Every structure is written in C-alpha cells, then in structure tokens.
C-alpha cells in the first residue's frame, strides 16, 4: 500500500509539481482514499519526504549493484562516483520538475536537501568502512571524505556546470579518475602527512643544491 501511494505521489509530482499535487489527486491515482494517506503519512509534507527518501534509496541500491558488478577498487570507485554525479542532475525529479514547476526546484533541493546529504553521508561511511576492513583502501578518517562526496553530489545536482561540465561524461570521468579515486583510496592529507611531505621536499632540495 505504501509503495502504491509513493508511486502515485511521484507520478503526480512529476506531472504538476509539489504544490499542485493534491492529496486527493494522489489518493485517486493510488486507488485509496485521502484518509488512508493521512493514516500512513500524517501530512503531505511527510509523504513528499518519504517519496524523496525512497528515490535516494533506489539510487544508492543501483550504486551498490554497479560496485558489485565491477572488478578492481579503482574501477569500482570510478564507476560508482560517475553514476552518482550523472544521476543527480538527470533524475526525473530534477529534469521534469524544471519543466513543470521550475520555481519549486530551489526550495525542494535546499530545504529538503539536508535529508539527501545525510543519507548520502551515511551510505558512503558504511561503504568506506567495509572497504577499509577488506584492506582495499587505506585506513583514514572516513567521515570528512564522506561529507565531501555527499556535498559534491548535491552541488552538482543544483549547479552541474562550472569550470567543469558535469553533463559531459568524459569530463566527469577524467575528474573522478584524477581527483576522487585517490581521495577515496588514501583519504585527506593530515597535518602529519603534510609536514612529512614538506620535510621530504626540503631534504631533496638540500641534496640537489
């Protein structure tokens, strides 16, 4: 029943936008009455949040499938991150909402953006913890990396074009291969790492002089 209601909510939102998607319309499409929706979700806002959460979970499930089907840690990182960065701005909740209710996009993905960013962080933390345990990536503090990746995906959703055009898969792949893969494998440089690299560089300079 919940899935039917969420399917109906998604379809109606994609047709007319969030504000004009009434609970009566959603109930008719789901083949239930309005009271049933209230009993299960209490408010329209809760229903929309549940619908968004389900779409996020679907995307993350697809990411897991891609990672499982890909061999080699570098390729796993590249394929999953490229998929996420591409999917965030090609999902119907972005493309179709821009057509039917462009004035709602900013509110929808900023006010409700906290939910998607937190879901992304939790998922990335879980994946990186498992990957560290397997020995495929270095041991480092994974939370800052998870935060950066989740916020990158959310930023691309809102603004796909800067110096880099995230609508161009070749550009995205090059960026991921040179920047994100090393980040995920080795983590962010720590103060100790930076100091060690500085000492090493100074020693090399002294020897060459």
UniProtKB/TrEMBL annotation:
The ranges the UniProt entry gives for DNA binding are 22-41
Domain HTH tetR-type, residue spans:
1-59
Keyword annotations: DNA-binding
Q: Does the record's keyword annotation contain Metal-binding?
A: no
Annotated GO molecular function terms are:
DNA-binding transcription factor activity; transcription cis-regulatory region binding
Taxonomic superkingdom: Bacteria
Q: What is this protein called?
A: HTH tetR-type domain-containing protein
Source organism of the structure: Nocardia macrotermitis
């Amino acid at each position: 029943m919940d899935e039917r209601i969420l399917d109906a909510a998604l379809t109606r939102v994609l047709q007319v936008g969030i504000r004009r998607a009434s609970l009566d319309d959603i109930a008719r499409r789901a083949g239930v009455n309005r009271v049933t929706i209230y009993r299960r979700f209490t408010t329209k806002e809760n229903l929309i949040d549940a619908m968004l959460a389900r779409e996020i979970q679907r995307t993350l499930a697809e990411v897991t499938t891609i990672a499982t089907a890909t061999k080699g840690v570098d390729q796993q990182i590249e394929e999953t991150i490229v998929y996420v960065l591409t999917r965030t701005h090609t999902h119907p909740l972005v493309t179709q909402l821009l057509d039917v209710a462009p004035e709602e996009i900013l509110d929808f993905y900023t006010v409700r953006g906290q939910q998607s960013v937190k879901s992304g962080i939790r998922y990335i933390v879980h994946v990186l913890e498992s990957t560290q345990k397997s020995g495929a990536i270095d041991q480092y503090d994974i939370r800052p990396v998870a935060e950066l990746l989740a916020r990158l995906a959310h930023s691309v959703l809102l603004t796909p074009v800067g110096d880099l055009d995230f609508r161009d898969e070749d550009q995205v792949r090059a960026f991921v291969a040179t920047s994100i893969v090393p980040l995920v494998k080795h983590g962010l440089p720590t103060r100790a790492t930076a100091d060690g690299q500085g000492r090493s560089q100074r020693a090399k300079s002294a020897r060459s002089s």
